[in-house]
Amino acid sequence: MSRAAMAAEKKQKAGTTMYDLMVSGQEIMFRVRGKDNLCVDDGGSFNAATTKFVDMPCNPNSVNQVFKYNIKTGGLESVNKPGLCIDDGGALSAATTMSRLWYCDINNQNQWFDMDESTLMLKNPVKDNLCLDDGGATRAAMLEEKKKTGPTPYDMLLSGQEVMFRVRGKNNLCVDDGGGWGAAVSTFVDKPCNPNSPNQVFKYNIRTLEFENVNKPGLCIDDGGSLSAAGSTARLGYCDANNQNQWYVLDESTLMLRNPMKGNLCFDDGGGATAGASKFVMRSCDNNSPNQHFEILSRPAMLEEKKKSLGTTAYDVLTSGQEIMLRIRGKSNLCVDDGGGWSAGATNFVGQLCDPDSPNQIFKYNLQTREFENVNKPGLCIDDGGSWKAGGSQAHLWYCDPNNQNQWLVLDEDTLMLHNPMKPNLCLDDGGGTFPGGTNFVLSNCGDDSPNQHFEILSRTDFVEARRKKRIDAGIDDDINLLNSGQKLMLRVRGKNNLCVDDGGGRSNGATKFVDRTCNPSSPNQVFTYDAKTHQFKSVNKPGLCMDDGGSLGSGSVQAQLWECDPNNRNQWFVLDEENMMLRNLV
């Protein structure tokens, strides 16, 4: 009888069989018969001979479990890894090599497989009595089955979204890299789950099997290198697709993270039940261990959960896109100030009295580029100066450039420290000053106990409103907005019987000195405008002349005078301390 006739007769009697599915060219999966929904899985690698085949929970979305059969060559090619086929490893005797992916080659007899439809066994036709033992299910059918359960943790990893790992059964403790900003700087520990922490958010690369820290680009979870249980502690290491110490595969049925190249070793939190109590290691996989099961959490979902329980946090204010100020914690109302320059590198950052009207202190943070841009000086961003050593350069404004790593700063919400994610263990530091303009900002070695590295994130709008209420409560009714409006104004000495600042009457450089005179709005010597950009008080009736402190750096050694206006003349820079209505020289 013709084969075609026999095939038609068979189809009429038996319908579509496993063999029919296999030779149809459809995408197929192989389920191991009788083994609780375990499927043939190539181990995860996208390269030849990098991982060995294992049993994994059947997942039709896994790139490691879907194949097509070529009836002409007898080869089973990975659908998601074109050009790579199932290869038995090359041995001619039983169990002497492990199956792996290898470059598809029609002449490679290690890739030839025939299905015995009566037994569902895959035989190598040129290797006497050697078989693979598999079931057989179509991917389409598996997808339909999966729809009943909805998205799973493995799906979340495959999507490439930002994820966190919560240790199952341990009071909201998550996997935390320990806080280091370089390779092998710190070891992994359990910490309270915080979706704003730069130490707890990762992305999974299905092609390389690596978990990369989202906030520390180029650094991945690394088991430390040991091939034995608890032989090394986990840390961040430079991401390397060929580094097998960074390969992790999720067993979705148990929520355990396995290293596919290290027999029966799983990610383990070390056994601690409280934050920081133990360090992560690889241990022998144990489904009953309370230390090896990790819930895969979406960072956006965790953020929403946190907001419901804690409300708006410093990190929320920072990343909201609103105008913010950075106040140095513990230092009497000192804020990050760019020094007053209006061009790249013109002045260095210093601490100055917090002033929401100062053009030098208001920034917006770009979460995507990690940059702080000055709101009043568009296109200029905080830049650490370029050094990779502690104290090696001073911070200044520079042209915003998302590719300039000197402008990358990430907030650690737990410590309120600003880290440069590309410069190991370096944080923004105010230089140690305790009074306005005392020292210049630098990057220094990060220190939780340093008084110079912790920055409160303030909403400019909230700061202005709090200041207004404080002034009302103190009975101060001066019109602060008038100062920065550019309108004509006078300066009255508080508590001195209607005495005002008077330039003395001169009309040229240094002709007369400033004195107190009875306030007179008609006097040509008492009316000024204030330029918020240059910090100068300009005489309204004597164009081109500004208030000048006389030039001394000592107390009371020279008298104030009128002098030719010069925005670069630091003797003419004045800023109002709104807490006490005093006029300070910025520098």
Automatic annotation (TrEMBL):
Q: Which Pfam families match?
A: Ricin_B_lectin
PROSITE patterns assigned: RICIN_B_LECTIN
Q: Domain of life, per the record?
A: Eukaryota
> Ricin B lectin domain: from which residue to which, for each copy?
26-152, 161-297, 322-458
SMART domains for the chain? RICIN
Task: Provide the species name.
Answer: Phytophthora fragariae
Q: What is this protein called?
A: Ricin B lectin domain-containing protein
